[in-house]
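pasting for ref
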Amino acid sequence: MKKLINDPKRVVPEMLEGLVAINPSLALLYDETVIVRSDLKTWREEARVAVISGGGAGHEPAHAGYVGQGMLTAAVSGDVFTSPSADSILETIQACATKAGVVLVVKNYTGDRLNFGLAAELARSEGIPVEIVVVADDASFETRHGSVDERRGIAGTVLVHKVVGAAAAAGLNLRDVKAEGDRAAAALGTVGVALSGCTVPAVGKPGFELPADEIEFGLGIHGERGTHRSALGRADEIAAQLTSRLVEDLALGKASRIVLLVNNLGGTPLMELAIVARSTMRQLHSLGVCIERAWCGTFLTAIDMIGCSLSIMKVDSGRLARLDAPSSAPAWVATPATTIEGAVRRVSIPTPRRPPDRASSAGPSQIPFLGIALHGVATALLAAETRLTALDQAAGDGDLGISMSRAAHAILADLDRLSAEPVATALGNLSQLLRRAIAGSSGPFYAVGLSRAVAALKQTGPSPLMWATAFESGCNAIAELGSAARGDRTMLDALYPGAEAFRAALQSGAPWTEALASAALAAEDGARKTAKLLPRRGRSRYLGERAIGLPDPGAEAVAVWLKAIAGAASDFPSA
């Protein structure tokens, strides 16, 4: 497993040094793997309750990312997934303690409970007042009132950090800070799902393997397996399972007031987290639950595990005020103090519409096979999606297959209208349709090519050669927009040979069907030859010679749809 590290034994201290280097508000305590507020000496003069948390590394940005005004005073780090020693915790207590005392926020894992508990006992023997808030938010078990050992402390710990830190910053005494922390922890539930194991740097391989069609449900944050496995389903289905477990665990009902934390376990894109957040919030709103605040991002991880967790904390006005209180901790993301409504907000801004293009409407009559040709193009692109995706993954960004699929679905959805319109109007509308449906780079290219072709049709007489002129005009427009030429290993290396073969066949007196067949064969040959070309445009140019051996995906797509048009024409020889 590839890792951006120097020495597995130095991962934690070097990581902490990096965090301190980029965050002026943080500092390292002595030579320990302990992060403290950089203003610790000044802060001690305020004589407020210190809040200390920590645990094994590998959960970044926790715990060091939550050190700052309004949250933690210090975070003690052990090795990856290993509790810090009692001595290290004790030294941190001694460095941070004032006469107001110290609250330790501890996740319910055996190592953390033992080491933080021992350090607290030793500190008390020195006369330092210490209280402990234990977070056991793991809701993956069937009963909320299971044994203490069952309910681990996981991502919801971040919310407890915020509540306890804000209470301490407000000047509450030690007993009251602990009481707020205990109540917050009791009002909290978290459950997670993994799509992969995680890789401890010193081990170099995932802690467990998952088949491609399975997920691990109810896992902790140390790479351990979950409570059970189930089949991989749609995001809505997975989010529903997680949400239902939390609703049951916390006994949520209509008018329950909660906050929601959608957490990345390490390797999950924000795109997928947002989809999970959408599903979760819809389900909660359907139950009448009031979502006072919601956060979505990377808060407490299991190194590089692909997956997410949901945390829900029941709130009242007092606890909500603690969550809204300001904090300078670098990893805490504040949100507007506004209840989140159920409906997705949409803004509609009226835009002026152009009058109908009368010249286009008065153009040539609809050619008989246009509807069948467009249906054939859409069908062929859908069938080629997997192949085009694989080609684009090897030479580009991998989105061509899905882009062509979106184009195909858009064509099929609008096929009746396009088939009934005059051809120039239909092609003009097809240009707009593809511009909106495809996006990426292909969308503008196809849109401008069709737009230029329509302009050429309006200027030429209704003869077979007008289609050759329109075809060539479209090619030239794409070349101009992309600053590309034939031989650059792009879609033009299929388009230009197709256009030339089309004109040559028509000029030799060949019928329409044969001219299109010649164009399709020439485009197919041009696309195949791109495998020998050095890329000079598009994303494949970054690969240089490594792209040689595979045809250009864009050129292959041209060959696909042009062959489909030729096939439609052969079925309608009267066209």
